[in-house]
Task: inverse folding
């Protein structure tokens, strides 16, 4: 398909990007935390991908290339809003996150996501992660990139990816476990004689 | 090796991703067998990861795809198509 676009059949570009519309938007949303701005950033990222398609090298996955473009777009927008923005994270220091310690944890079934309230809790917890952790978490857990791809996309080491992912997971557990446990109480025990 | 709860928390991601050494994994499992709190931390973390990765958490804005392709069409008209021979 890429060859077709480069050969002049530009309409094929619409079909080429269709499978990646969602992941590019989600990456933008996770960074910018605003739906309208994320949509605008996703559109700009796809336009940049179109204009620079001849620079795409087939050694990398097309989806990884697209994600790198939207990541740069998101970072540029964040810098424009806040030029002094730094989200430096020290991956070397010992800084364990203490998780929420619940002894009455009951599994939260996926069906609970039908409730808007539950989806909002999860989105809010993700949005509150520091940017550097959010980027890694979204790439690994939502975009399902492997550790190596995540490291290359973000320009960080594999060790940093692992450290940031672990801390992101623990921060989410710390915040979400108590909230979900009270929002979705465990199923009541059913007695056969009732 | 006997692990404290704090050590086990540091290994939760490695445990979930199955990247721990055989010995460490066995130590973690031994701890989990008798520690209700750490078992709950592990289960809740695993559960939360499943929920966050669910497509229902993030929905695309209504009409997103249509607006995207309309804007692309507009941009394609303004800019000459990329060609394989174009300089980098």
Result:
């Amino acid at each position: 398909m890429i060859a077709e676009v480069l050969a002049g059949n530009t309409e094929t570009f619409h079909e080429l990007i269709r499978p990646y519309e969602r992941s590019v938007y989600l990456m933008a949303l996770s960074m910018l935390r605003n739906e309208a701005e994320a949509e605008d950033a996703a559109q700009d990222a796809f336009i940049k991908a179109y204009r620079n398609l001849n620079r795409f090298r087939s050694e990398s996955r097309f989806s990884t290339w697209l994600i790198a473009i939207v990541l740069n777009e998101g970072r540029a927008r964040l810098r424009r809003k806040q030029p002094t923005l730094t989200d430096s994270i020290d991956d070397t220091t010992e800084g364990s996150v203490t998780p929420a310690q619940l002894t009455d944890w009951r599994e939260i079934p996926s069906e609970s996501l039908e409730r808007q309230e539950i989806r909002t809790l999860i989105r809010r917890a993700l949005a509150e992660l520091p940017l550097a952790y959010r980027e890694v978490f979204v790439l690994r857990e939502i975009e399902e990139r492997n550790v190596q791809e995540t490291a290359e996309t973000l320009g960080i080491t594999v060790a940093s990816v692992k450290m940031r992912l672990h801390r992101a997971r623990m921060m989410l557990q710390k915040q979400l476990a108590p909230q979900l446990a009270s929002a979705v109480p465990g199923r009541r025990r059913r007695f056969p004689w009732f | 090796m006997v692990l404290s709860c704090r050590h086990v928390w540091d290994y939760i991601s490695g445990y979930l991703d199955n990247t721990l050494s055989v010995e460490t994994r066995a130590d973690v499992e031994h701890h989990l067998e008798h520690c209700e709190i750490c078992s709950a931390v592990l289960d809740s973390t695993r559960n939360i990861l499943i929920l966050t990765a669910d497509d229902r958490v993030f929905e695309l804005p209504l009409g997103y795809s249509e607006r995207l392709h309309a804007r692309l069409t507009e941009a394609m008209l303004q800019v000459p198509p990329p060609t394989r021979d174009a300089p980098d």
